[in-house]
Every structure is written in C-alpha cells, then in structure tokens.
C-alpha cells in the first residue's frame, strides 16, 4: 500500500500513563521537548488524534513557532498541518478549537452510523472556519483506510499524537514507521489514568522487537526513538 510515512509521538510517565485523572492536563514534557515536537509537526503534512483527546484537551494542533510556519510557507505549504480525528460514534464538537483554527482544514474519520452523526454535527459550522470533511474509513474504521485516504490527499508524512486508543490501533496494525516516546521522570500511579497503549495483539514481540534508534536526555525527559517498520528494524 502506498501510505504516508507514519510517526507516533507520545509523552508518558515512567508507569506508561499519558495523563492523570484530574481535570487539568498533566504536563509530561518540558519546553525543549515541546520545541522538538513542534519541529516534528512542521516536517509533517497531517496530524491525527483520537476523539477522546479532542474532548479532554480541546487541542489546536498548530505549528507553534512563527519561524517554522514561515519556513513551511516558503516551501509552498500551508502554515499548519491538515488535521485528522478518529471517532467511532462521530460525536465531535463542531466548536472545538481543532475545527476553528489552522489553515489546512480537517478530516473526521469515522464509519457506520458515525458518518451521519459527524456530518450532522459539523453542518452548522461558521463559513469562516477552515473546511472540514467527514470520511467513511470502515465500520469499524481501520488504520489502513485512514492512511489510504491521507495518501490520496497528498499526505506523505503523518504525525499521530495519541491518545492511547489511537496509538493502540496504529501499533496493532503494524502500519506505523516510527515511535517517539518522551518519558517524564515520575510515576502517575492512578488506576484509571489513560495509558499509552491498551492490551492488544502487537507485532512487536520479544522475537520481533522494535529497533531502538535513539535514546537521549532532554533535561529531565528521556527521548526514545524506535523504528517500527520491519525493513528498518
Ligand atoms: N501525553 C501525550 O502525549 C498525550 C497525547 C494525546 C492525548 N493524551 C491524553 O490521552 C487521553 C485521551 O486518550 P484516550 O485513549 O482516552 O483517547 P483517544 O485515543 O484520543 O481517543 C479515543 C476515541 O477514539 C475513537 N476510537 C478509538 N478506537 C477507534 C477505532 N478503532 N476506530 C475508530 N475510532 C476509534 C473513539 O471515539 P468515539 O468515542 O468518538 O467513538 C474513542 O473514544 C487524554 O487524557 C489526553 O490528555 C496524552
């Protein structure tokens, strides 16, 4: 399949949690790590998150650095990335910052009854908002269908920024190329805190592990990069 080069990025605690259960977002990165992620974003064409992340964090998913945005403009690209969200049920908030910010538009990947629900939810958005499209990616939606559709939109490099359900989908599918983990030097220790991944049938076993390509300290954060593609392991 002709698909985008796919990078998964996640910041987690030592006990593998990507947030805690408090209403405020848990800070798992430092400024240096945020700057690296911003560069990673700027080098991609699209960014994907799960509907859970949209509901909890209400993220903008923009390129933060004016210099990086300018660099993209000079290359004839949009300042920001095409945004994508994955939802089974299609219940996305049309007023979310995900839909109202940026200059490259957004795609909602869903399937089954989710298509009608998402289409209805997005119908009343202001004309001034960037375009947003609902795409049927199967029932249930698959990583393969999403990657195919993104490839058809000219996306050659995709950044997947979580949360845990979306990382689980891409890691079990074996359709990702790179994993970047930022590990914060503490434990969350809460039973119900969201996890980096859920139980699943992963192709990365002790016999067929990922390949560690980089491990370094960024202040107190450990940055780990793994190659996932069998050809690159
Ligand atoms: N530290 C980090 O790097 C990082 C990054 C991102 C998010 N987070 C945190 O992660 C938490 C959210 O993670 P999460 O795991 O709960 O949610 P998530 O992975 O962002 O999204 C889960 C939602 O995605 C949809 N979904 C899941 N599997 C699907 C599939 N196979 N096909 C189609 N849709 C599917 C469902 O949406 P519907 O319910 O709409 O059907 C599901 O509720 C938040 O606390 C956020 O702060 C942390």
From TrEMBL:
Gene Ontology biological process terms, A to Z: riboflavin biosynthetic process
Domain annotation Bacterial bifunctional deaminase-reductase C-terminal: ranges: 4-219
Enzyme Commission number: 1.1.1.193
Entry-linked Pfam families: RibD_C
Superkingdom: Bacteria
Pathway where this protein functions: Cofactor biosynthesis; riboflavin biosynthesis
EC top class named in words: oxidoreductase
Annotated keywords: NADP, Oxidoreductase
Transmembrane segments: none
Gene3D superfamilies: Dihydrofolate Reductase, subunit A (3.40.430.10)
GO MF assignments: 5-amino-6-(5-phosphoribosylamino)uracil reductase activity
Name of the protein this chain belongs to: 5-amino-6-(5-phosphoribosylamino)uracil reductase
Source organism per UniProt: Nocardiopsis metallicus
Lineage: Bacteria, Bacillati, Actinomycetota, Actinomycetes, Streptosporangiales
């Amino acid at each position: 399949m002709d698909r985008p080069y796919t990078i998964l990025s996640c910041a987690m605690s030592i006990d593998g949690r990507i947030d805690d259960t408090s209403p405020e977002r848990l800070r798992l990165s430092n400024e240096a790590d945020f700057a690296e992620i911003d560069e990673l974003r700027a080098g991609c064409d699209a960014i994907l998150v799960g509907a859970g992340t949209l509901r909890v964090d209400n993220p903008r998913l923009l390129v933060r650095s004016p210099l990086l945005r300018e660099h993209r403009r000079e290359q004839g690209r949009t300042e920001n990335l095409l945004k994508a969200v994955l939802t089974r049920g299609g219940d996305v908030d049309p007023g979310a910052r995900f839909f109202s910010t940026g200059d490259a538009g957004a795609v909602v990947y869903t399937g089954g009854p989710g298509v009608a629900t998402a289409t209805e939810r997005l119908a009343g958005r202001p004309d001034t908002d960037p375009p947003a499209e609902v795409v049927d990616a199967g029932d249930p939606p698959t990583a393969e269908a999403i990657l195919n559709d993104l490839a058809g939109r000219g996306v050659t490099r995709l950044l997947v920024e979580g949360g845990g359900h979306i990382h689980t989908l891409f890691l079990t599918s074996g359709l990702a190329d790179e994993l970047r983990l930022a590990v914060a030097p503490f434990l969350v220790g809460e039973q119900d805190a969201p996890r980096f991944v859920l139980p699943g049938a992963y192709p990365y076993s002790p016999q067929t592990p990922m390949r560690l390509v980089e491990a370094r300290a960024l202040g107190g954060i450990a940055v780990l990069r793994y190659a996932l593609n069998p050809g690159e392991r």
